[in-house]
Amino acid sequence: MKTANIRNFAIIAHIDHGKSTLADRIMEQTETVSERELSAQLLDSMEVEQAHGVTVKSRSVRNFYHGDDGQEYEYNLIDTPGHVDFSYEVSKSLAATDGAILLVDATQGVQAQTIANLRLAVKHKLTIIPVINKIDSASADIAATEAQLRALRPEFKDTEILKISAKTGQNVHQVLEAIYQRIPAPAEGNDQALKALVFDSQYDPYQGIIAEIRLIAGQLQAGQKLLLMNENSTFTAQTVGIYRPNMQAVKTLKTGEVGYLVTGLKDINAIQVGETITDFEHPTQEALPNFQPPQSMVYAGLYPKEGTSYEALKQAISKLALNDAAFHYTPEQSEALDAGFRCGFLGIFHLQIIQERLHDEYNVEVLTTAPNATYHVYLKEPDARKEYLTITNPAKFPDFAKIDYVTESYVKAVITTPNDYLGAVMKLCEQHFGEMVDLDNQQELVTLTYKLPVSEIAYNFFNSLKSITHGYATLDTEFLDFELVDVVKIQIQINYAPVDALDILVPRQNAAQIAHKLVEKLKYTVPRRLYPMPVQAIVENKAIARVDVPPLRKNAAVNGEKRSISKKQQLLRRQSLNKRQAARSDIKLPQSVFDAVLNLDSEN
């Protein structure tokens, strides 16, 4: 295929605006898959994607289209997620494309994530084709949606906006024609030195790392000795191929094409997303600009459940990290849960997806601790051996007597919402210690910019935002800096034994309220025993909240009209024994106990 006839593009949209359905129609009308092979959301192959109805991982597929001008074109479609937690996946996909289809639901109009993804496309300087979907719906308001679209960008005012139904296939042919007419072909470069961008990767136990690549210049074929420019290491290409949408080996990948490269490398850290691959014998002079590494927004501990080995969890997590560049992990040790990992996520939904992928793809069951933000702790002299301690695990928070001051990570949160919900959104941000930076009206939508502490948006902020705006708002966050905060650590003791996995960091002014709510929830989630067990919340060596977990049976020593002195004494002896054995407590905590901490923000 001539480079002039290649088109690389993505589809960007708000969640549930029909992006995956349009991808299905494109593959159907280009005969990439037969009618027998076609199924709904064909590119959403993971179980978690089908279960949640959202795209989590970007996927590429090559289509061949015979245009009305009589020429054949190669369409490389790179699918993108729509959820706010996976904007990094969108950014990676757009880096490998030359244009994007901006899809908007005619029944809902321009939504917040539409604007967030549009900003990413503009940032990558892509040609954008605006398209209105679901025009066959009875509740479609095509005129209003078109007016909203034209107001988004100056160039949209004179651009033809296509109107389609991805579900029925109506006018999808116009989209296929617009792709080769409007989106530019890749720059010529077959005679130049090989330069390929790794925009995604996955691990195969037999073939090693499989890199998804876009060729910027040159040619690539199996058996070629290659150089990783950032890592400065070499390997030999085992196989090169394309997705249609299943893997299909080819002899050569040429300039502008998108495909995959089987590296044979078994070290999961050998290739990073954003890597530049070139020929070892005739290397290119300059590597491509590397991707900005994603900033983890929340951290949580992942520990193997009973029946799952630490090694199995370690292998599964390392392979997931290769497939998801936004997922980070480091080993850690908990007194209550033994060996596990402290993991960084882009948000709560990202955490949930990782949990489900570990279960579905690797058959690994995990316990997940409550998410938390990043803190910098500055110590008093003579404990201040270095500038500050970076704390991502509350259990590692130093004793309060050693702390000089603490700073917390803050983000710039850009919230786009319909005007009707402006007051509710502002109230929500104020409740979470937000500081307004900017407010911008755009017809029926308003964009709010707030400075927010990460700890306040780590738990339930996005769900609350969706709830008060009925799903019509988006949250786009960007790391700002660290600012001074007054936080304390709430330590939980169960049956007088500290459970470090339940430690949380909270603002001092909220500590008492949160502690009482937490111990009350633990009262009903901690597994019962034959005797009462105290659950205490400790702040700065003082117990500020306590409840007793009820026993499995009634206590004969304190019930009934006749009270037995001997039975009371026997109970006291058992309780005294419990205290002496607290240091080696063998209480097994289920996930519901950690969920009690996670869901604190969701209840009044």
TrEMBL record:
Q: What is its EC number?
A: 3.6.5.n1
PROSITE patterns registered for this protein in UniProt: G_TR_2
The Tr-type G domain covers: 4-187
GO terms for molecular function, please? hydrolase activity; translation elongation factor activity
For membrane topology, the record states: Peripheral membrane protein
Alphabetical UniProt keywords: Cell membrane, Elongation factor, GTP-binding, Hydrolase, Membrane, Nucleotide-binding, Protein biosynthesis
Q: Which residues bind GTP?
A: 16-21, 133-136
Instruction: Fetch the SMART domains from UniProt.
Output: EFG_C
> What is the catalytic activity of this protein?
GTP + H2O = GDP + phosphate + H(+)
Enzyme group, top EC level?
Answer: hydrolase
Give its localization.
Cell membrane
Region forming the signal peptide: none
Q: What does this protein do?
A: Required for accurate and efficient protein synthesis under certain stress conditions. May act as a fidelity factor of the translation reaction, by catalyzing a one-codon backward translocation of tRNAs on improperly translocated ribosomes. Back-translocation proceeds from a post-translocation (POST) complex to a pre-translocation (PRE) complex, thus giving elongation factor G a second chance to translocate the tRNAs correctly. Binds to ribosomes in a GTP-dependent manner.
Protein family according to the UniProt entry = Belongs to the TRAFAC class translation factor GTPase superfamily. Classic translation factor GTPase family. LepA subfamily.
The protein, known as: Elongation factor 4
Which organism's genome codes for this protein? Answer: Lactobacillus panisapium
| Name of the gene | lepA
